[in-house]
């Protein structure tokens, strides 16, 4: 499921490039996945292509968009209007994809009332009423790590159903709330496993052949 | 593999809270996963716990850290010093985790030579020499979408082995280069599948019971 948006992104690019039909091999090359994995992922959601014929880009794009709910507008709010929060409000990529930030909150009284883009920062005590009145479904959390769990607990109480968390913590939410973490350190750490393996393979090859393939990281 | 850093994050928090032993149930609750999935993930890398005894937090943390290469320093560079790039250089979370940004590059001659933190922005023509001389293994890409693939091709030529891409595109890299994308829209889109399902279940329940559980998103 986490991969489907990546398919959509790649298919959109293919469509923009004028490609009508794409094979699982071509998609796999673009997404660093095996053709078998691609076929397996897509077959889980229905029969999108015919054996040996490839996938019709426009049709697959539309189907995946519906599966992912990309045809829906999602009312969204932001908690925390520090440097990161302001960058998020000003990020031009959300609205065209259906994610509309309708309200912004901050616990700092000095921030309350400040205008940011087309919004006025609201105090946290307004959270529940605003979420209900504006039918907000998703919250973006950009508060310091120490406050994140408390803020997320408040959001859960207000019946927010999806949370995009930028704080570098692993917050706890009930099973019926969907949480995604945006954390560059986690992404880097998920690479180093593969890089370390390459490094060790190369170090082994240094031992036998006397040369490696590239620079080596240093042990800490 | 993508989940291991999340385990490390959760275990670090448990350790900070003074927890010595944790069960797969407790870990699962924290990470929104089933205990079976946790046991399966961890058993893939070795026998970390005994049936019914739980996992020793400190031991598991150390083992996973070694598996992920978290004990290694990774020399890193940044491409693109716009608003996002500057936020990345000033992000305090990288260095303590072993990711040291040693150089910053930009294609804009007006940016070259500008001091940012302890670095001086370099022109793109210095890329290959600096990557080799400073033994840089990972690059962080924070350039506009239209330039991302070109910049990433240059990085691949310089034998960069891991790329953290912030541009909202799905770039293509050879199989032996590890790519991770930081893209809040992709993360939001990977939630909406689940939210849409809930929404449709609730709409069904509205039909039968006359009331829903919370606000509904609107079709676009």
Describe it for me?
- Two copies of one chain form a homodimer.
- Chain A is α/β, with parallel strands linked by helices and 220 residues long.
- Chain A has two domains: 65 residues, Winged helix-like DNA-binding domain superfamily/Winged helix DNA-binding domain (Arc Repressor Mutant, subunit A); 108 residues, Rossmann fold.
- In chain A, 44% of the residues lie in helices and 20% in strands.
- Chain A has eight helices and twelve strands.
- In chain A, the strands form three sheets. The first copy, chain A, has a six-stranded parallel sheet, with helices on both faces. In chain A, strands 1-3-2 form a three-stranded antiparallel sheet.
- In chain A, a hairpin with a 3-residue loop joins strand 2 and strand 3.
- About 4% of the residues of chain A have low confidence.
- At the A-B interface, helix 1, helix 2, strand 4, helix 5 and strand 11 of A face helix 1, helix 2, strand 4, helix 5 and strand 11 of B.
- Strand 4 of chain A pairs antiparallel with strand 12 of chain B.
How is the quaternary structure best described?
Answer: homodimer
**Approximate helicity band of chain A:** 40-55%
Uncertain runs of chain A with pLDDT below 50, 5 residues or more? 206-213
Distance between the termini of chain A: 36 Å
Number of domains as seen in the coordinates of chain A: 2
* Number of strand elements of chain A: 12
In the CATH hierarchy, the architecture of the largest domain in chain A is 3-Layer(aba) Sandwich
Q: From the helix content, strand content and strand pairing of chain A, which structural class follows?
A: alpha/beta
Query: What do we call the CATH homologous superfamily of the largest domain in chain A?
Result: NAD(P)-binding Rossmann-like Domain
Strand fraction of chain A equals 15-25%
CA-based gyration radius of chain A: 22 Å
């Amino acid at each position: 499921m986490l991969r489907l948006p990546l398919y959509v992104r790649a298919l959109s690019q293919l469509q923009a490039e004028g490609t009508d039909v794409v094979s699982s091999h071509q998609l796999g090359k673009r997404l660093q996945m095996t053709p078998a994995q691609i076929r397996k992922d897509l077959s889980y959601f229905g029969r999108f292509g015919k054996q040996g014929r490839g996938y019709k880009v426009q049709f697959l794009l539309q189907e995946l968009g519906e599966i992912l709910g990309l045809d829906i507008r999602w009312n969204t709010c932001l908690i925390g209007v520090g440097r990161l929060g302001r960058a998020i409000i000003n990020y031009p990529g959300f609205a065209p994809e259906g994610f509309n930030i309708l309200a912004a909150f901050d616990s700092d009284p000095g921030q309350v009332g400040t205008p940011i883009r087309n919004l006025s920062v609201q105090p946290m005590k307004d959270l529940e009423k605003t979420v209900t009145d504006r039918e907000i479904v998703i919250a973006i959390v950009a508060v310091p790590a120490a406050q994140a769990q408390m803020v997320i607990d408040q959001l859960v109480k207000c019946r927010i159903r999806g949370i995009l968390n930028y704080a570098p913590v692993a917050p706890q939410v009930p099973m019926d709330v969907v949480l995604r973490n945006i954390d560059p350190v986690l992404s880097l750490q998920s690479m180093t496993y593969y890089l370390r393996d390459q490094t060790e393979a190369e170090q082994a090859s240094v031992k036998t052949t006397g040369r490696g393939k590239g620079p080596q990281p240093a042990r800490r």
